[in-house]
């Protein structure tokens, strides 16, 4: 292998596809990798993901490389590896391709070429041991028949405990309230309905709530944690026995071990009982780095260096929303009254920013109206607080204006899970944003509004660039005047490679530094919410979905909304309550039809 080669490492499973692009360093002893790029894409289990979708996912990865190691869950046989390699060659015809199972990349990342056992506990679980050329697996059969000790296993056991306690004792555990709160549900009936439609990942994402309850001392939840650790230890002991490893190196991988020390402690404590000489450690390298290591055919230990470039660090540092607010530097010393007064006073900056952007907001209304009138759709794209605000505004359009659910859509980095809790790293990859729009079939008639307080979020910028390439109208909504590369939002001197210069419109709402530095759910979030209210409501008005200031296309799906419809008919037609209600009933509660008839 030559110094300076670019190597792509890919590790995929039922939760996500993680990738890293590295470059081999020249003039160094052994092999040294420098990380150039890395990120995450949707799940890519080889057995569960359709080939067409797998191609689409892999096509979002960097194209320029010399070697690629692609290791996916479910890619177990020689036939599987050959089929996966063929797909990869379609995307990277000139690269040297190595394919295999995610067990292979996990072993490489954890053990290099040495002997030992890898215990992986994420949303699923598996145990894999190696001695020389012999490999011994255990577990990893999927969440329906296996994956004992993984996030899905722990979460489903905890959910069953909730129902069992209710059935036996008619008592609601404190843990029940935590689960309902995490899912924004109101009762056990809603919980059961949610579980019936939830996929493996959605259920597995409840694992942090389970561990929080265990750390709080809930004995019954602790028993579930102990049971998961016990099963993983049992598999580990069986693998060690089959490989005749008396003092094995045991490496712990996966989110459950890295995020929750209570699980690692429980595993270590149990394993020491039957394998007292085992050497237990937590993996220092991610599986995708193991995939790159295999692709490089490295025989020496590889070292990895990861940090943002100085340009990226400096660029983020000048973001207005990241600055400290001089008016709030002593928050912890303020009284409750002083805190309230400060928050209220800061709202003036929101109003000032919105007034300054009035012309651009009007242009946005015109752009969106034209697209919707011509059969297009409106997409909001954001991450974190910005994404949640976009999804919220989109969800209000159907009941308020009688619009179809697909007319206005919210796209958030990390998917539905990110609506309830942070999904780490979901916003950091441009290709993930582009892929999200591909999944929704964005077309030239559509308009895409990217929402990013900093103006830098890669997920949003990638989505905007892809939308523009597909011919759709693009709008950026940001709260920073200085964007990536240190360029002012009003400048035409755009950073090379960024999508700003191709935007149809940029709306800037410089609300200033937040009261809590960097917490853009505050003033930036308020300004964003108002701006989206203006754009979506203004567009619906222009499309004729109101009369005066009354909603005439609202969905009368509840008692409150039916009462509102009756009041609208009564007011517009000068009828009494009973007569107005009779007209609506005659028109099956279709408010527009009733008004047109009258």
Secondary-structure map:
Blueprint: E1 6-12, E2 17-24, E3 31-41, H1 51-58, E4 67-72, H2 78-91, E5 96-101, H3 102-111, E6 116-121, E7 125-131, E8 134-139, H4 151-169, H5 174-183, H6 188-197, H7 200-204, H8 207-215, H9 219-243, E9 249-253, H10 255-259, H11 261-274, E10 279-282, H12 287-295, E11 302-305, H13 310-317, H14 336-356, H15 358-373, E12 378-382, H16 384-401, E13 408-412, H17 430-439, E14 447-451, H18 458-469, E15 473-478, E16 482-483, E17 487-488, E18 505-508, H19 523-542, E19 546-547, E20 550-551, H20 559-573, H21 577-586, H22 591-597
Parallel strand pairs: 1-4, 3-11, 4-5, 6-9, 9-10, 12-13, 12-14, 14-15, 15-18
Antiparallel strand pairs: 1-2, 2-3, 6-7, 7-8, 16-17, 19-20
Helix pairs in contact: 3-12, 4-9, 8-9, 9-11, 14-19, 15-19, 16-19, 17-18, 20-21
Task: Describe this protein's structure.
The chain is an alpha/beta fold and 598 residues long. The chain is built from 22 helices and 20 strands. It has a six-stranded mixed β-sheet with strand order 5-4-1-2-3-11. The chain has a five-stranded mixed β-sheet with strand order 8-7-6-9-10, sandwiched between helices. Helix 9 (219-243) crosses helix 11. The chain starts with 5 loop residues before the first strand and ends with a helix.
Compose a concise summary of this entry.
The chain is of the alpha/beta class and 598 residues long.
